[in-house]
Write a structure and sequence with these properties.
- The protein is α/β, with parallel strands linked by helices.
- The protein folds into 2 domains: about 110 residues, Urease, subunit C, domain 1, CATH 2.30.40.10; about 280 residues, Metal-dependent hydrolases (TIM Barrel), CATH 3.20.20.140.
- Helix content is about 35%, strand content about 25%.
- The protein is built from 14 helices and 18 strands.
- Strands 1, 2, 3, 4, 5, 15, 16, 17 and 18 form a 9-stranded mixed β-sheet that branches.
- Strand 2 and strand 3 form a beta hairpin.
- It is globular, with a radius of gyration of 21 Å.
- The structure holds zinc ion (ZN).
- The site of zinc ion (ZN) has 6 residues, from loops.
Length: about 425
């Protein structure tokens, strides 16, 4: 018999932005086993642990639809540079000398930051998948890994075989782990290689996760070379036969909409777009027709791994552009934030009995958020990681009473050591160019 946890007298904030007060939430065997009004609770379920939540709000955990978690080791290394310089002069040269230790510790740092901010599930897009998987398993978070493939790299065929083998060997490892096939992007994967990756994904029965139309220069180049947009290229490669997670898609065009399917999901990451000056794009013209949630992108471009911040920026960008403050309402944005769970195969993101107990307990009685009149607005516009009192994944507390279970002091000490080491190693030669 697993233990039973009771979140007592909580205000439930569900995925539809409804708030229901005075609820007892019982958690057992990783699931929400019962939700009941306190007045209707006959106390027949014995709880091994009771958390008094009368001042707290409980919502589904936050999904992060697109990140390069290990890049936390590069947080702040490439500031105030163009996208071109960011890739070609900074990130790819440094990444070419990255070690397993860098990937492992960087991923742990990223997971710690995400758990601190209430993230319970994330879609990773990176290489070094052994290290990423190890970090996911050790920390208890839910991870959906897309081991990244560069079709233009000289060792592409070996790498594709290696990734395929890795996924086959590990896809049943844990109910908290899932995989996507992860072509980096159409501009780093020549069309035949993109097709090969898509075919492999079909054989494995996996979805794909890749960057599409992040910048207008990518769209122009694709069109010049093939007559198609990056979405069109992905379509021709058979990509939309599969469930697809689009990293970014900021420059989506009217004509691209015909390719999109019911299970095409966009990970919108506005902080990166503003920081790398990616332009306005077409996303805001079409967002009502798109399935989307929020991604943080990697910390080397957006510096933080907090999906609430991305949701906040999305709403603010929307209002700013529309010049209509009554648009992009907090509840609508909250629903998009939570809808992101559907990009994953874990059935998370629902405040209902039988759903996985992946939850955040919000404490809004803090200086930055108090007083508040609407908990959703308070979270969206005012909150930070201090407001995340507890983070629970599959019924386990990974942040408890404001403190992470991970040993963050040791982690930071190791990160300092690796930071010195990677600066001493310097930049190498990248295999691909942007
Ligand atoms: Zn990305």
């Amino acid at each position: 018999m697993g233990k039973t946890t009771l979140l007592k007298d909580a205000s439930v904030l569900d995925e539809q932005a409804q708030c229901i007060r005075h609820q007892n939430i019982y958690i057992k065997d990783g699931l929400i086993s019962k939700i009941t009004d306190i007045s209707a609770d006959d106390g027949s379920v014995a709880a091994d642990e009771v958390i008094e939540c009368s001042k707290f709000y409980v919502s589904p955990g936050l999904p992060n639809l697109h990140t390069h978690t290990a890049m936390n080791i590069f947080k702040g290394i490439a500031e105030d540079v163009t996208a071109d310089a960011w890739f070609n002069e900074m990130i790819w040269p440094y990444e070419s000398k990255m070690t397993d230790d860098d990937v492992y510790t960087g991923t742990l740092m990223g997971i710690a930051e995400m758990l601190n901010n209430g993230v319970t599930v994330f879609a990773d897009h990176y290489f070094g998948e052994e290290q990423v998987l190890k970090a996911v398993k050790e920390t208890g978070i839910r991870g959906d890994l897309a081991p990244t493939l560069f079709g233009a790299a000289p060792d592409f065929s070996e790498r594709l075989a290696q990734v395929t083998e890795f996924i086959k060997n590990h896809r049943e490892d844990s109910p908290r782990v899932a995989f996507h096939m992860g072509p980096h992007a159409n501009y780093t994967c020549p069309e035949p290689t993109l097709g090969q990756i898509v075919d492999e994904a079909k054989k494995l029965g996996l979805p794909i996760h890749l960057h599409v139309s992040e910048e207008d220069v990518q769209v122009e180049k694709a069109r010049r070379e093939t007559g198609l947009t990056p979405f069109g290229i992905l379509h021709r490669a058979g990509g939309f036969d599969l469930k697809v997670l689009i990293g970014h898609g900021l420059w989506v065009e009217e004509g691209d909409l015909e390719y999109l399917q019911d299970d095409t999901w966009f990970a919108f990451c506005p902080k990166t777009y503003m920081k790398l000056a990616s332009g306005r794009g077409g996303f805001f013209d079409h967002y009502k027709k798109l399935n989307f949630g929020f991604g943080t992108d990697g910390a080397a471009s957006s510096n933080t791994l907090n999906p609430v911040e991305q949701a906040r920026l999305f709403g603010l960008m929307g209002k700013f552009q529309a010049r209509d403050a009554s648009t992009f309402g907090a509840e609508e944005i909250w629903r998009h934030l939570m809808a992101g769970h559907q990009a994953f195969p874990f059935d998370t993101g629902l405040m209902k009995e039988g759903a996985p107990a992946d939850l955040v307990v919000w404490d809004l009685y803090q200086m930055d958020t108090f007083p508040f009149y609407s908990p959703i607005s308070s979270i969206l516009y005012s909150s930070n990681s201090q407001n995340v009192k507890y983070t629970m994944v599959a019924g386990e507390f990974l942040k408890y009473d404001g403190r992470l279970k991970l040993d963050t002091a040791a982690l930071m000490e190791e990160a300092v050591r690796l930071q010195k080491s990677l600066l001493a190693r310097g930049k190498g030669k990248a295999e691909v160019t942007y």
